[in-house]
């Protein structure tokens, strides 16, 4: 046992980090997500959702396991959907939700090499204008679904009764939606207004509102609480910046990181090691921030010394800028998958996680 | 002539009275065709000319929607981009060659994928494509060897051999199987096409294989076979790097040939006609086309074989002569296909002709664009050989084709950016034509347009998105798009809409846009009307949150500056009413009240002159205002005069 450990560690010193593989598919992929695997294993299946195609679809791909050069991932199962896939998220290792630009919210199960539709909600019952969904977020069994016109509906996805548990009426587009805690959601729009809504209170007015950028209207593209400290909100903007706030005191705690050169398309923390943040942008680059916890002061005792911006961000550019936007980024274990606008899936294996 | 490659389509007839066709462009790649007919029937009756009329849409068999071709398009695009960004100081020629190989490997990969798919689905859906791509690969390879690569001393034989070996693998597999699996003699008995294999290897210049085969002959020990093997072992092969000059080589070559012929003349091979044929082939001074023909499936294979056996030092400009010699043995020149014509042009170093032929390939211009791109990088297009090639027009056309698709428009842009003369114009038009199917797509188009400095596209896309939102009565959404493009006119119009709707229903407690305009920072400054609206919202929020004094001040400034539209004045004045009624202490000074009064007078005049529409309950509201103004004036005059006279009271005269 000891011997094998030693050989492993000696292997480790020679280990090649961030190896890149590319695979052209035949679709414009808006979202690519790994099918989750238990910690310590490498993911080998992924689900993609397409957009801007004559016939849009959700596809399950299997990557050849083991050797790196065993060829491109293989499409093993396809389900046609109406409209662009706007969001796709796994809620457990076998189940994922997908929303479309034509107003469908769908629940699927992955069974080995097959994807099967389990449920399709009749959303016209839930929202007044269910013609298009911009995205959704899931937490503790509740889905928060955003329509193009800015309505938000929250309902438990295990319940098929079509009864929304909460509604935020809107007449204003929502670009980003994210749960902060199970009873709090954050919304962001393209005018750069962020609002936090407490679902326990009346939902006719937000609990807090604040600008993404106080000087001018910079659209918000993604929102996410920092997984270790839910009171810290992380957001990305149309100008390529990443910003953080302490929601307990939003006015004095904003930090803005001038990051990408164009609109940030996806923002994703590593599930197991949340100090690692991955971001992608319209400029075609993918970044790995490997000390985000330190930036937020999370490694220090949080209660007494919360100090933003004392550390310098440690960023590794995994993919350089190119002509085509990167639409999504997802990480599982030490493998990353990103989807680019020229029908390209880029896999980065052996990420150097902290 | 390449007449047969003009596709002919039959427009379906609905009646036999069709007398002609009219057609018009429908999009970039299609035609709308209408077969018109004689409106008189045979018995002279005029029939309804509109009855049974149909318009047929004819689309070019497009390359854009097939999953396998899509991969090829995107892969080659990556190679194209790489070719256009070769770093300075790099070995350009070497890099071009690498990229050419990249392209060819994409083609091979594509063919393989298609074949796998056909096997899986057990059909021949890709048969045409495989044929087309195979030809392209063929042409590409010879072009790469002759025109992209550097040929030392212009001696082309080794290149041609490389080419034919790759594309005429008739015997290769079999030969290597025979050689590796047979360890005993008698191959000539076991394999009925043994001699075909021998000659096949010989004419491809695989002398080792040829000798190995001879050694496997059942009578390999015989004198004739030993001699033959011996002669093949000593065959002189020309190489630029061997240090032997061409005349020296020719002398050796002649010497060796005469040895072969001496052996033939001695009757050594007479009893073995097949071996004699081999020996005659290698011993001949002149090419023996009749002997070669049964072993060469194409004229270019024959050309390579004859050069190998008779003229190893042939240079690139000799090729068209040799090609002509060989073609004559393959029938009428009119039976030549597009592939032959293209290859001929390449062998003739007539690059422009070759490219013109390539453009006729039914691949949507894919091959012509990418191969010409590499050729243009070598600089050959500016030489007489490449004269008359309008590379930019080709790129423009291909780019335009890609731009017509929702899946490829971004790829199309990367081609159009290399068209200096009209690329930007085409980009502008094509980007505007893209359907704005979602907010996300619109954002992408805006971002791409910004990259190329097409501000008018940005503006127009945002305008369209804004109008879509307005149609859905989503003023907030519309404002978002106005802000995204800094469109002050549109922002002003939207602000106007907000104000009008509020002015009309003045009883509403809250103006609907407060949350929309919150926290916009300097962005509200893009339009004066929007600035006013934001200030007005600020007034409301001050008033509601108890900052009455500040609210009053702001309101007066808004009235004084006259930035507000006339139709909104009454609303502003009505807002002043509760402030005027604040009497202890008064919120509005005498001067402030005079400003309000002046505004009211101006408004009354305008209403009287019919400059603005009569607002509801106008007289009642103005009356109330007048009373409040009068009262406030009374109070403030007293207070302010008292305040002003106060210093006088403190000075006492003795």
Automatic annotation (TrEMBL), chain A:
- What are the protein's UniProt keywords? Nucleus, Repeat, WD repeat
Q: Does the keyword field hold Transport? A: no
Q: Which SUPFAM superfamilies match?
A: WD40 repeat-like
Q: Which InterPro entries match?
A: WD40/YVTN_repeat-like_dom_sf, WD40_repeat_dom_sf, WD40_rpt
Highest taxon of the lineage: Eukaryota
Q: Where does this polypeptide localize?
A: Nucleus
Cellular-component GO terms for this entry: nuclear pore outer ring
| Pfam families on file | WD40 (PF00400)
Work out whether the entry's keyword set contains GTP-binding.
Answer: no
> For this UniProt entry, what is the primary localization, expressed as one broad class?
nucleus
Coiled coil spans: none
Q: What is this protein called?
A: Uncharacterized protein
User: Species lineage, top-down?
Assistant: Eukaryota, Metazoa, Ecdysozoa, Arthropoda, Hexapoda
UniProtKB/TrEMBL annotation, chain B:
What GO cellular component is one of the record's annotations?
nuclear membrane
Subunit annotation: Component of the nuclear pore complex (NPC).
Q: Which domain of life is it from?
A: Eukaryota
Q: Which InterPro entries match?
A: Nucleoporin_Nup85
Looking up PANTHER family in the UniProt record yields: FROUNT PROTEIN-RELATED, NUCLEAR PORE COMPLEX PROTEIN NUP85
Tell me the keywords, alphabetical order.
Membrane, mRNA transport, Nuclear pore complex, Nucleus, Protein transport, Translocation, Transport
Q: Write the lineage as a comma-separated list.
A: Eukaryota, Metazoa, Ecdysozoa, Arthropoda, Hexapoda
Q: Name one GO biological process term.
A: protein import into nucleus
User: By what name is this protein known?
Assistant: Nuclear pore complex protein Nup85
Species assigned in the record: Apolygus lucorum (Small green plant bug)
